[in-house]
Specification:
10 helices; four-stranded antiparallel sheet; 10 strands
Length: 276
């Protein structure tokens, strides 16, 4: 069994008209431990609904979600699941609850009953992992959006989470903050082997993933490596999604008769192909 198994997942929000289609309908996804998975889709495709199923914020209307063999619908497993899967949301202000950074990072371990001395070490290690040690005594409202997101990640790390689910974590950041946060996430994945599930509509952010899944109207409609998915430019556009600019330029040049590799994805690869 994979680390996370999503089997025939259906989710229908309570109070919605029965004639409306469910937010998720028959989704099947397996995630291996240590994988970097990107889930992309337009607004309303079901991305955030899916993310909330991964640590039991939402429960299935039908189907099943298991995390490390634990069923998210089992109330007895809730603490272990939420310790295993840490969530980082779109707006960091919705997650930060303490007046001082180190108190916020300590909040999760305190609720797990971790001894005080171990909490102090966990907070120190977590802040070091996201390179925010010098801000431990700061008030969170004095931090930038990107710094707040790194504090949110540190809070998950302090709980010794094995999986980070990031739901549109850069959508409220400027390009510099977006780049900095993604570098932090990729480094944690590379150096600590943390499983990363990134929900995003920025196609460039998914380039570093091991695998990309495309959601549309509550269903998984495309899957593959970033190169395999992004070379299907016309299909992506038919779903209302853009591909990275380099991939789009290469596709247009190919349609105009130039011989370009099918799997160009980055600006550097496009520049090399143009020079040749």
């Amino acid at each position: 069994m994979a680390f996370i198994e999503i089997e025939n997942l259906v989710h229908r929000y309570e109070g919605r008209d029965e004639s409306e289609p469910p937010a998720l309908k028959g989704v099947n996804i397996s995630v291996e431990e240590g994988e970097f998975l990107a889930i992309v889709g337009t607004n309303g495709s079901g991305k955030s609904t899916l993310a909330k199923h991964l640590n039991a914020i939402l429960l299935p209307t039908a189907g099943r979600v298991t995390v490390d063999g634990r069923n998210t619908a089992d109330p007895a497993e809730l603490w272990e699941i939420r310790k295993t899967v840490g969530m980082v949301f779109q707006n960091p202000d919705n997650q930060i609850i303490a007046a001082i950074v180190e108190d916020d990072v300590a909040f999760g371990p305190e609720n797990l009953g971790v001894p005080p001395e171990e909490i102090r070490q966990r907070v120190k290690d977590a802040l070091a992992s996201v390179r925010m040690e010098k801000y431990r005594d700061f008030a969170p409202h004095l931090l930038s959006g990107g710094q707040k997101q790194r504090i949110a990640i540190a809070g998950a790390l302090a709980m010794q989470t094995r999986c980070l689910v990031l739901d549109e974590p850069t959508s409220m950041l400027d390009p510099v903050g977006r780049r900095s946060l993604m570098e932090t996430v990729k480094r944690l994945h590379r150096e600590q082997g943390i499983t990363v599930i990134l929900i995003t509509h920025f196609m460039e952010e998914a380039i570093g993933a091991d695998r990309v899944i495309v959601l549309s109207k509550g269903q998984a409609v495309m899957e593959g490596t970033p190169r395999e998915v992004y070379c299907r430019e016309q299909e992506m556009k038919s779903l209302g999604l853009e591909v990275p600019l380099a991939a789009e330029v290469a596709a247009r040049l190919r349609r105009n008769g130039l011989k370009f590799p099918e799997d160009i994805m980055t600006d550097e690869e496009l520049a090399v192909a143009l020079c040749q």
